[in-house]
Structures are given as structure tokens and as C-alpha cells.
Amino acid sequence: MDAAALPLPGLRDELSLHPGPASLDGSPTWTIRDPVRNRYFRIGWAAFEALSRWGGTAGDVAKAVRSETTIDMSDEEVVDVAKFLHGNQLTLANSHADTLRLAEQAATEKHSVFNWLLHHYLFFRIPLVRPDRFLGAMLPLMCWLGSQWFRWTSAGALLLGLMLVVRQWEVFTATLVDTLSLSGMVSYGIALSFVKVIHELAHGLTAKRYGCRVPTMGIAFLVMWPVLYTDVNETWTLASRRQRLLVGSAGILAELSVAAWATLLWAFLPDGGMRQAVFVLAAFTWVSSLAINLSPFMRFDGYFLAMDALELPNLHPRSFAMAKWWLREVLFDLGEPPPEAMNPGRQRAMVVFAFAVWIYRLVLFLGIAALVYHFFIKAVGVLLFAVEIGWFVFLPIWNEVKEWAKRRDGIFKNSRWKRPLLGIGLALVVAVIPWRTRIEAPASVAAEIMAPLFLPAPARLEAVLVERGQHVAAGTKLLAFTAPDIDSRRAITAAKLAGKSAELEAVKLDPFGRERLSALTEELSRLGSEKAALDAEAERLTITSPHAGIFLDPLPDLKPGAWLSPKQQLGLIRVDGSTIATAYVAEDDLERIKPGDTARFIPNGLDHVGMTGTVLAIDRNPIKVLTDPALASLHGGDIPVRVSGQILVPQGSFFRVTIRLDGTAPNLKLIGHVQISGQGQSLIGRAARSALVVLVREWGA
């Protein structure tokens, strides 16, 4: 049918038209409000003029627009307006064909149970109240909070509070650390509830101030986490950009005002519960406002503020369409026109923004997938993790590949397609070839035997017979100690022994004293044993080297006359022999190494050189307790741990690997990494094995 003779459908009676903001080229716009579906559509000048003369045929409308305005509107452009109205269900359904069309649209929008669950466990809303009348009654009482003087006063409170916090910065940071506990998390949860109520009321009151209706307020669940929401969609009918920006930023401004006054109060309040409460309120509100609400990458306040500030409604889908077009042109040089006309600088900015959103969402969805895996039943968590990655990461990529397939004729017209194909081929080669043969793991290095030195009993140091770092033979005297108590007992025993010996000699000459000979002999034997024990005990106070090696790590301030306890380590002997590295290999890499593989230890820092060696032994059970605290994440190491009482428990499966290194052992334990030359593994093989390990572990196969 000729476009000019095409009859135009009727418009729904409940639709309303409102003046909109000026477009980027300065031309006027209007907003169509659909109250049934609570949706709003922005149209340009030409579409408005056509709608103002709507009725009859497309040719009649186009002719009227041309004759009554300066717009040179064609019949096809009027048909395009009709298609737009049809597609967004803004026309009357007066025929059987219209009914069929609406049924088809409803069928396409209807999701399966699986799709519904997939989307709604991630995000769904529960409207709770209809606050429009309440907000209208509340507005006269609260309008002073949006006044100019209150904003400037809050700004002054903010500056003064920040200055005072800087002066008490150590106290502020210490308080922050103290709140990182279970009770602190509860306090942050209460603060979150309080601040978000204020946030949503600010949106609603500001919208009400500019004459907009606020139909609902309620709770939205984001990955089962409850957040409040307020429906202020009617602000799309506001022609003033400033008014829309104020409605969009009202929640953030309210939170910042709360943070400003809470920060100032914290600086003045004395220590106690009230000061702790305002600290929690201030700290959480700063993070909530600046780090979350201002982000334009998700549909929070920052996104809507960006749309209003740039006059770019539907910023995400428009930027995504522009980025996909740009990507196809870069890869295949199709020569297609951009989705919409705009200057090159704005076009590039939208492409960059789209890629930033994609990267942000990729990280976010991976985080959500990990969250789902850890907090659901493990078997269900694995399934939901796979669904998350498949639906939100791989499916969009697959849909774009299908768009490429539709354009295959245009793609193969020139040779540009060979470049991405070559890149994909190289990526596959890198992913498939098992080029990765090196396994890295955190490790510590020490001599195979380190013998600590201790006293047998409290004693006084008489002499230090060796120096630190001196090589000694086995049995070499190192430290000489005395104990006055032992010396006194030795002297008494020696005197008794001498007296009894003289008495025994006298008895032997006395013919009448022979009956005492047996008793004296037994007493002399006892005293001799006691003296020998005391001599041995005194001998033990001279510390000797148990092995041949180097004397290291002497106790500081070892000076004659000092009294020392048997609980104090006096030093240690690094025994001559092998140098041993103890590495902790992750479960994914365990099957790639075996005894005899070559390894290299690389110490942290530049004070020591690396050492080579071979794998000596591999534990077949993961460690339950980490005995090398320096390797723990709590102390800057690479092994994630949690504290359980006095022990460090690894977070994950790590296996102890013993490596014999060549060269001289270091004087002290070294911390670093080992690089083991093991069996090659491709990136795809590693990913597949990691997934298989998780499946086997969680399903108990």
C-alpha cells in the first residue's frame, strides 16, 4: 500500500503529552506519558507536529505539517511515527489484526518460569505503600531542608567537620578498626536502614515539590539484599533539567547532609555510645553516597543524573548500540551508519562509556556468581554460578556473534575480516597449547636442621666462648654458666665426702670400730654418687654445640654476670648439611609436579640470590595449619588464612612440597617464591580442571 494512503491508528485516550527539555541541537521535545504502564517516551519536534494533526492517512498528516509549519515532513516519516506508536502500544486496538499484534507482543514479553526465576532472584521489587498523600502533607513541614540556607549551612558543617577529623585522624581510623566486628556490622546495618529511609523520602519530597505524583515506595531485593526504592518516574514530565537533576540528586544530597552533620557531631561529642553511633552513621553514609549511589554503571542515582545532565535518555542501551556498531566497523569495516547521528567526540565518549559499563558489569556479575556460590547450598551454588556466567557473560557474546552471522555477506566483501580471525586464532592457540610449565608457590628456606640452644636450669653467665657466625665442631664449648646453689651443694658434698673418707681410714685401724665399716662404706658411696650428679649438673651449664655448624642468633646482650632462664633461647646452630625449601602449592597445580622436578627459589628482596634445586617430597594431604606465619596473608604473604584461636587456618587447599636446594643454607629463614618446572598445562585445561575439582568436591564424587 502507498505510504500516503496508509490509514493511521487512533491514539489511546489516557495518554498525555508534556513539554520536554530542549534537545542537543536546541529544538524542542515533548514527553508522552503512558499512565497504565507507568512509562514515558521522548519525541522530537517533527513527531509532535504530526501527533498534533493525527488522523486520517499518513499523506494527510504529512501535507498538513508541511503547509502549516516549516518542517518538510515526508509520508514515510509519518509512517515511522505510526510504527513507533504501534511498537510501544500507544495506539487503540480496534481490529482483529490489532488484537493479534498485542497478543504477539505479550507472548514475546512473557518469560518462562526458568527465566522469571533467573531474573527475579537477582532483582525484584515489592511495593509497600502509596506515599503520595503522606508526602503532600509532609512537604510544608520539611521544605526548609531543601532551602538554600540549609545547603550552605550543611556545606559549612562539612568543611568544619573534616578539618576537625583531620586533627583527630588517628582516633578516627582507630574507631573505624574497632567497628569491624559483629556488633559493628549490626550498627552499620541500622545506619543503612536509617540513611536509606532519609534517601528515599528526599527523592519523594523533592518530586512532590515540583508537582509530580509519587505512586509507590517499597523494597527492592538485589541478590536477596533488601534496598528501599521510590517510584519518581513522573519526573520525566518535567521540562526543566534543573528540576529533574534536583529530584535525581536529592537522595545523595540528603545522605551527604547526614554525613556532614554526623562528622561534625563526632568531632565534638565525648567518648561514649552517642559518639560511636554518629561515627557509624558518618562512615557508612560517605561510602554509600560516593562509592555506590554516584556510580553511572548501574541503574542507581548516578546513572539517572548522568542521563539528565547529558540529555541522553536511555543512556545504557544507546551507548551499547553505539559500541556494538563501532566494534563491527573496526573489525569488519561494514560501512553501516551509526545507530544515531551525533558528533564524533560524543560518539567516542559513548563507546568508551559502554566498554566501561561492560567491564564493570563483568566484574560485578563474577562477584555475584561467587557470592551465590558461597552463600547457597554448594550444589545449588555451582549451578547458579554456571547460570550467572552463561546468562550474563556468554549469552551477550553469543548474541553479538549471531549478529555477525547475519552480516556475513557484508563481512566477506573485504579483507578486514582476516584480522579478527587471525586474532581469534592466536588467542585459541595461546589457550590450547600447554605452554605454561612453570608452577609458582610461596615458600620459605632454611637449613635442613636448625638446633636451638637452651639452659637446663636458671644460671648465671660466666663467659661467651664463641662469636656469632663462627663455625664450630660438634662438642665445642659455646657458653659457660654457673649456678651458686649447685656450687654450694658441690662444696658441702665434697667436704662431707672428705670427712667420711678420713673417718673410714681411722675405722680401718681401730680393731673395735670394724662394726662401723659397712655403714661408712655405704655412706661414702652415696656421697660419691651425689657429688658425681652435682658435677654432671654443673657440666651441663656449659653449653656445647650438638652438631658441627655455625653459631647464629645469639640472645641480645649476652654479657657475663647476666642471669638467664631455661625458657630463653640462647642461640642456635645451623647444622652443616642440606638447604631445604618448604613450598605450599595450590591444589590445581599439584598433579603437574612430581619428585625430581627442577625448582628455583627466588627470595623476597635483593639481599640474597636465588637458589636452584629439585623436588624432594610432596604431601598428599592438604595442610590444616600454616606453620610459617610470614607466608600468611595477614602478614603480607600470599596464602589466604583465617585465625582460629592461636593458629592460622589456610583458606583453600594447599599442599606442602619439600625441595632440596643447592648451595649454602642462609643464616636465617628466607621468605620468597619457588618456580617449579612441571608438566605443561593450557589455559583451557586449567579452567576445565578447576571446574572439575569444584564439581567433584561439592557433589562428593
From TrEMBL:
Membrane topology: Multi-pass membrane protein
Any Gene Ontology biological process: membrane protein intracellular domain proteolysis
Segments crossing the lipid bilayer: 149-166, 173-194, 214-232, 244-268, 274-294, 351-373, 379-398, 419-435
GO MF: metalloendopeptidase activity
Keyword Chloroplast part of the UniProt annotation: no
InterPro entries: MBTPS2 (IPR001193), Peptidase_M50 (IPR008915)
Pfam family membership, one: Peptidase_M50
Residue ranges of domain Peptidase M50 in the record: 190-271
GO CC annotation, single: endomembrane system
Subcellular location: Endomembrane system
The protein's required cofactors: Zn(2+)
Keywords recorded for this protein, A-Z: Membrane, Transmembrane, Transmembrane helix
Entry-linked PANTHER family: MEMBRANE-BOUND TRANSCRIPTION FACTOR SITE-2 PROTEASE, PROTEASE M50 MEMBRANE-BOUND TRANSCRIPTION FACTOR SITE 2 PROTEASE
Record-stated family: Belongs to the peptidase M50B family.
Protein name (Swiss-Prot/TrEMBL): Peptidase M50 domain-containing protein
